[in-house]
């Protein structure tokens, strides 16, 4: 079992599986109910068609047992395992009807989560040897946040906020509201300190070195450098490293992420990890028992 794999399926995931199966209408599968008879059993294997990182095999298994408890699933590769084309990562055996009804939903989860883990692993590899963390954002699939962020961890990345209630991040649109009433950043930060627990850090998004200076002098704990040039990032890091946590964000790609990391920032957040993941190609090969 991977260190990331939960020992008990979280209720968020169980609810997500139930909703996905209801959405797919597995209890009213016209085709399978007409063509597959009771008592017919089968076996299926999940086969990878491209190189990547496996994530979500336990979710894949949970979908099958949710459709029919008689189905037995054997996970053949651990979470985080680097897979190659032709590799078999899981096997399912039991009533053929249950296998066919669960197939699409189970693969949807496995392909998406493995795609996220694979892309995250690419970014992590790109900054290998540098003291920086690759982190995700809240740009996740609707309802998929718990699993999307789980897959990021499997790929070697780290999580930013799970939800708005997990931390304070003053974004550019918050600053619009603050400035519209003529309030200073220092006053806004003081108000946040009064309302938040002493355990909660305050991070502020800034787009220029001048805004970074204003935020640090106002007493923030962390900066989010959004869309700054490499030279601007390097300047902010030289001035404030060790004083506040510094995160880079905005349009960072696999081609540019290492150069960004070399500026000395502590964190690099990449929305593309979860907002537009490319599913890992995995298919299900089914045969009669």
What does the secondary structure layout of this molecule look like, with pairings?
Elements: H1 11-24, H2 30-35, E1 41-48, E2 52-53, H3 57-67, E3 72-75, E4 82-83, E5 88-95, H4 96-126, E6 133-135, H5 145-154, E7 168-170, H6 172-180, H7 185-195, E8 202-206, H8 209-218, E9 222-226, H9 230-240, E10 245-249, H10 257-261, E11 267-269, H11 272-275, E12 282-288
Parallel strand pairs: 6-11, 7-8, 8-9, 9-10, 10-11
Antiparallel strand pairs: 1-5, 1-12, 2-4, 3-5
Helix pairs in contact: 1-3, 3-4, 4-5, 7-8, 8-9
Helix content: 40-55%
CATH superfamily of the largest domain: Aldolase class I
Stretches where pLDDT is under 50 for at least 5 consecutive residues are: none
Strand order of the largest sheet: 6-11-10-9-8-7
Class derived from helix and strand content: alpha/beta
The main β sheet shows up as:
6 strands, parallel
- Count of runs of 4 or more consecutive helical residues: 11
Q: Average pLDDT across residues?
A: 96
**Domain module tally:** 2
Secondary-structure element sequence? HHEEHEEEHEHEHHEHEHEHEHE
CATH topology of the largest domain: TIM Barrel
Molecular shape = elongated
C-alpha end-to-end distance: 28 Å
Q: Report the CATH architecture of the largest domain.
A: Alpha-Beta Barrel
Counted beta strands: 12
Per CATH, the class of the largest domain reads Alpha Beta
Question: Tags for this entry?
Answer:
elongated; six-stranded parallel β-sheet; alpha/beta; single chain; 2 domains; TIM Barrel; 289 residues; 11 helices; Aldehyde Oxidoreductase, domain 3; four-stranded antiparallel β-sheet
